[in-house]
Automatic annotation (TrEMBL):
UniProt xrefs under InterPro entries: 5peptide_repeat, Pentapeptide-BTB/POZ_domain
Protein name: Pentapeptide repeat-containing protein
Keywords from the named record: Membrane, Transmembrane, Transmembrane helix
Domain of life: Eukaryota
Transmembrane spans: 37-60
Database matches in PANTHER family: BTB_POZ DOMAIN-CONTAINING PROTEIN KCTD9
Gene3D superfamilies (UniProt xref): E3 ubiquitin-protein ligase SopA
Length: 422
């Protein structure tokens, strides 16, 4: 092994030699060398740059080609989707055709001759097909079943296909695109639509006499220019539903959940039963009763023969709705109710909560308040004293009874009305 000393010395000597050489070269030579290095670097860069540029061009071109290819592919895919949709569509058409064929044996049989098993078979088939088809076809299918008398309410004593639990949401029943001259209506008299999902569906220009919607979910459903006579809405959900321009007569809304619905321009509302139903936040606007208009010379009366018992009408608005000889009773809750531009005539409020009720631009004639809570109402005593009031809380919270408190009967005619209603 060489001593460490020797190694160090050799290194030192080579450094000395290098130093001597630098000292001996001229400044010009140094400059020349510098320049040649610069030129060489430029050459190298140029040499590299050209292929880089070519490469970049190639990359751009490739990207462009890829893009075109992708667009081509997208177009192909779109075509494929379109094709497969068409295939699905034609398959649905085939399934639908087969289904209609399968049903023909049932359709051709007299209704009375249908057996339970045939109806079960039809139910299974219909429920299956309803899962496949769109809303327009669903309407055609329902119409087909109805026209073949397979979809009538129980009261018609016909055998029916039970569609409990079927989903007919968003289906448009009737004629949706009618011109004003065209008064045609689709006749769906006696149709059975019980226990069915009918959310956001619509009934337009339809006759729904004696139809049944018992227990169905009609949330957000619209009834437009539809005649509703003897219809059963018992236990149905009608929240956020809309009723515009039609008649509602002798129909039953018992235990219906109808909160936040909207009724307007209903030109014949009478003989209906609204017991135990919930109409919280509903707006009744221009709802009138034509039948009794002519009989009693009271224009636009409302709730003449309608049954209001144990009804929840919290925060309901009655706008331009006239009450004539109405009876609102049986623990009905009308707190925060608004009566606006309305006439309330010879109407009985019995066992009713009218807390915080607001009466705006209204005319009150011969009213009776029996066991009524008017606490917080905007009615003033001058108005109230014109009517019969008994066992009730006044707007200032004071309890008044005609026996033990001040006798508030001021209007002689009111007494007569009390006897009349008893
Ligand atoms: C229907 O049933 C009756 C007797 O119940 C029978 O006479 C008639 O032939 C049946 N009709 C058909 C088309 O099956
Ligand atoms: C409604 O009527 C218009 C013109 O009358 C027509 O162009 C449109 O296709 C119709 N829409 C439907 C859903 O029938
Ligand atoms: C609607 O159909 C029922 C039978 O389903 C019929 O009694 C009634 O007369 C029809 N109404 C109209 C206006 O055509
Ligand atoms: C009904 O319509 C409302 C509002 O347009 C929407 O929020 C809701 O999801 C719809 N419901 C159904 C079952 O289509
Ligand atoms: C009815 O449908 C609405 C909307 O889909 C839903 O929120 C509600 O729970 C349903 N009500 C009943 C009683 O099924
Ligand atoms: C149809 O309703 C009317 C009352 O609007 C009633 O007299 C008639 O008996 C009902 N018909 C059936 C089959 O339910
Ligand atoms: C509503 O449904 C409840 C529970 O199923 C039932 O007890 C009640 O009789 C029904 N009300 C009406 C009016 O059909
Ligand atoms: C009042 O109606 C509610 C449903 O809104 C029901 O639960 C209750 O039993 C009814 N009360 C009477 C006394 O009918
Ligand atoms: C009435 O309906 C509203 C809205 O759905 C609900 O909040 C309220 O509890 C219901 N009231 C009764 C008495 O059923
Ligand atoms: C409430 O009003 C009645 C009738 O005007 C009056 O007799 C009674 O003193 C009032 N009560 C209060 C606490 O102001
Ligand atoms: C009347 O309303 C007021 C405030 O809203 C409340 O403090 C009072 O207890 C109510 N009185 C009665 C009898 O309900």
């Amino acid at each position: 092994m060489p001593p460490v000393n020797t190694h160090y010395r050799r290194n030192f000597r080579s450094q000395l030699v290098a130093n001597r050489r630098i000292n001996s070269t001229s400044i010009i030579e140094q400059q020349k060398k510098k320049w040649s290095i610069v030129i060489q670097v430029i050459k190298v860069i140029a040499a590299i740059l050209v292929p880089i540029m070519i490469g970049a061009f190639t990359i751009i071109q490739t990207l462009q080609e890829l893009k075109i290819a992708r667009m081509q592919r997208d177009a192909n895919k779109e075509q494929q989707v379109h094709d497969s949709l068409r295939v699905i569509q034609s398959r649905i058409d085939t399934v639908y055709d087969t289904f209609i064929g399968d049903l023909s044996t049932i359709v051709l049989k007299p209704n009375n001759n249908l057996t339970e098993s045939e109806l079960m078979f039809a139910r299974a088939k219909v429920l299956l097909i309803l899962d496949l088809i769109d809303e327009r076809r669903k309407w055609y299918l329902i119409k087909y079943l109805y026209d073949n008398q397979l979809f009538y309410a129980e009261s018609y004593n016909k055998k029916f296909i039970n569609l409990d639990g079927a989903d007919l949401s968003n289906v448009k029943f009737g004629i949706t695109n009618q011109t004003s001259q065209d008064e045609r209506k689709i006749n769906l008299t006696g149709i059975r639509l019980s226990n069915i999902y009918l959310r956001n569906s619509s009934f337009e220009n339809v006759l729904l006499n004696n139809a049944t919607f018992e227990r169905s979910n009609l949330t957000g459903t619209k009834f437009l220019k539809t005649t509703i006579q003897g219809v059963n809405f018992n236990n149905a959900t009608l929240e956020y539903s809309t009723f515009i321009g039609f008649q509602v007569q002798h129909s039953s809304f018992r235990s219906a959940q109808s909160a936040y619905s909207s009724w307007s321009s209903v030109n014949d509302f009478h003989g209906n039963d609204l017991s135990n139903s919930n109409w919280t936040g509903t707006i009744f606007c221009d709802v009138i009763d034509h039948l009794h208009t002519s009989l009693f010379l009271v224009d636009n009366s409302f709730i003449f023969t309608n049954r209001f018992e144990n009804v929840t009408m919290k925060s309901v608005s009655f706008v331009r709705v006239r009450f004539y000889r109405a009876k609102i009773h049986g623990k009905s809750d009308l707190s925060d109710v608004l009566f606006e531009e309305s006439l309330i005539c010879r109407t009985l409020f019995e066992d009713v909560c009218l807390q915080r009720s607001r009466f705006v631009k209204i005319k009150l004639v011969r009213l009776q308040f029996i066991r009524v809570n008017l606490n917080g109402s905007n009615l003033d005593m001058e108005q109230i004293n014109k009517h019969f009031i008994d066992h009730s809380y006044l707007p200032n919270g004071t309890f008044k009874s005609s026996i033990f408190g001040v006798n508030l009967i001021q209007n002689g005619a009111a007494e007569q009305d009390v006897r009349e209603t008893k």
